[in-house]
Amino acid sequence: MNTVPEMSTRRLIMTLLKTRGPLGVSSLAAELGITEMGVRRHLKALEQENFVEVTVVRQAMGRPVYKFGLSELGDEQFPRNYDHLLVDLLEELNELQGAAAVEALFEGRKRKLIRRYMPQLEGRSLPARIRKLAEIQHTAGYMTYWNTEEDGSFTFYEYNCPIAQAANRYRKACECEQHMFEELLEAEVRRTDCLAEGGRCCRYKIFPHQS
Length: 211
Description:
Elements: H1 9-20, H2 25-32, H3 36-48, E1 52-57, E2 65-70, H4 72-75, H5 83-97, H6 99-121, H7 126-139, E3 144-148, E4 154-158, H8 164-169, H9 172-185, E5 187-193, E6 202-208
Antiparallel strand pairs: 1-2, 3-4, 4-6, 5-6
Helix pairs in contact: 2-3, 5-6, 6-9
């Protein structure tokens, strides 16, 4: 399973909130292996910096539960690669030359990335290809993880999208990523969840081609 590089406790907390959604103090303490008091100290600092916000979840019985999640500012601390500028440029292209030109741009980007990455994946087994692709995407800011399933398939996760606003506006970006994965992995790839559609991550199921 691909993991994030070593980082500070506060950055780890933000990463957990990014990948797992709102969490309570006890859950964060268990994940990090530190005391709840230590977690509260870090959360207080993150709240003061406006990176984290708290939600009170009231229960039918017992005390309310406090859940902590990333604020909009906190979410912006993860790579976005000049997303606003990209959207402005795509909209300008759309106005000047139409939607077909925008789609052609995404297709061209897909072909360019395939040419760039394919030499790093060729000749490898499917698990090795997935591992390498996860490393590539993680370096590009996608916060990737992957698992091997009991049925022999694989699940590939991306918890961050550096071009999120562009993908929200132009779903061709998501389509091209799926097709790029299929060509690079030489496998069947199905997208089962999508950040651009309100999911917590982009999740792909990967199946070896039947011989």
